Amino acid sequence: MFNAFAGFLFLVLSVAPMAPATPSVAASGLPPVVWELVSLSASNGFHADIDDPSLYTVQFLPDGRLTARLDCNQGSGGFSATDGLLEIEQMISTLALCDADSNGHNFQFVLQGATKYAFDPDGYLLLSGDQGDLKLRSALSGVSWEWREFAGGDGEILRPTTPGQYTVEFLSDGKLVIQADCNRAAGTYTADDPIIDLQIGAVSRAMCPPGSLTDRFLRDLGDASSFVFREGRLYLALPIEWHSRIRSRLRRP
To answer: Is the per-residue pLDDT at 27 higher than 70?
Structure first.
């Protein structure tokens, strides 16, 4: 009997999809993943459950900037986030005319007024303020994830000494871009929460230094069978016996 919740995981490295370079790291309580809007409730009583969360996103970058997708528009601004308190500077956005049923304006309005943040037990990010409440989920794509730790059901703990050499990017077209120490790999994936299937394809075969975890990383990555987010951390699960337990940890940038 197997239970798919075991394994290892990663930290966000690169950020804004269109950024020319990775910004410098600054302290923030919000991991710089891409957060997709699940629902919004405005202070005037308006409520909307979002059919396509990928149309409404926000990313809190390590340099204190945020970028947002507001349906057919793009927004940006500055922010600070510490110990559950959030301050968002006046946002600017493009002014394209979206469909009549768009929630782009509502999303920007409530987001602009958010003053608090929290993570619920299911991994969602909750933003709240005088203008209303937002519920957001992490997205796989839009960032590069760095391997931090493997924890096996038999008590094995494995941490790479150079986590930045072991990364994976989930592209929006279903492709994978993988750095495995001194090697690069490509592949494909499908994800239907919580099930994930990763197929590792072509791998370069450079001779890495002694102690390299290239083969182990690629093997375990390819065996991952489910995923879950917790506070912006991505946990990939490998099939293990039902009585085994997993402890994965992610260091924020």
So the answer is: no
Integer Cα distance of 207 and 223 in angstroms? 23
Contact 229, 137 (CB under 8 A): yes
Angle at 209 between CA 234 and CA 189, to 5 degrees: 30
Evaluate whether 134 touches 110 at the Cβ level (below 8 Å): yes
Q: What spatial distance separates the first Cα and last Cα of the chain, rounded to whole Å?
A: 37
Rounded distance, CA 38 to CA 47, Å?
A: 11
Which residue intervals of the chain are DSSP H helices? 104-112, 214-223
Domains of the chain plus CATH, in order, are 2-15+142-241 (2.40.128), 34-138 (2.40.128.270)
- Closest to 10 measured CA to CA, from 28, 33, 30: 33
The pTM assigned to this predicted structure is: 0.84
